[in-house]
Write a structure and sequence with these properties.
The chain is an alpha+beta fold and 198 residues long. It has one domain: Protein Transport Mog1p, Chain A, CATH 3.40.1000. The chain contains two helices and eight strands; from the N terminus they run E-E-E-E-H-E-E-E-E-H. The longest helix has 21 residues.
Length: 198
Amino acid sequence: MKRLLCFAISSVIILSSFKLNHSFAVKDYLSVPSVILNKSTYSLSWSSHPTETYYKHEYLTAGQKSDTYTNMVMIEAVVGEISLADVVKGKMAELDQRKATDPVTNYQIVQNKAKGEYLLDFVLSQSAAGKTSIAEWNAYRYVPLTDKNGKKGILLFSYSKRGYGDGVTDFLKTLKTARVADINTIANYTIPAITIKN
């Protein structure tokens, strides 16, 4: 299944990402093998290092699959001199463009000036045969990165939730009440220490 999301951090090139092969061993590029969120353990399920400076991890709870997940945690890192504000603006521009073909797409942005962070939460959808087949909500927390070896760049810590098929309507209704609590959880979450390794 085609993924709904683009690489979340890259402000230079916006690419639709595909999971081409799950048969290879998953490599822990960021020294974070698992994440505990809302009392659930998310284990590293997929990783990618498509460019010299970009790393992406996805985490799922036991029994979940990347194409049919209901809850997912993602950590992404870009190393280098990159403007955090520009990256966020790039993601917002991508979502604005998506609104032309996806009426569900909507977002809100909050800046934490004291920490130099941004939190972008957004909803989008995918349709099939004129009916919404997937609804997806995401909270993207963009933070400045300095890993344990002093490498600097940008880190994205994000949480994604999905509803499918006949469950989309209930998913969107539940989202109205659950969204605020989930945003607060992500905003206040202690992000694991990162050590980037190739």
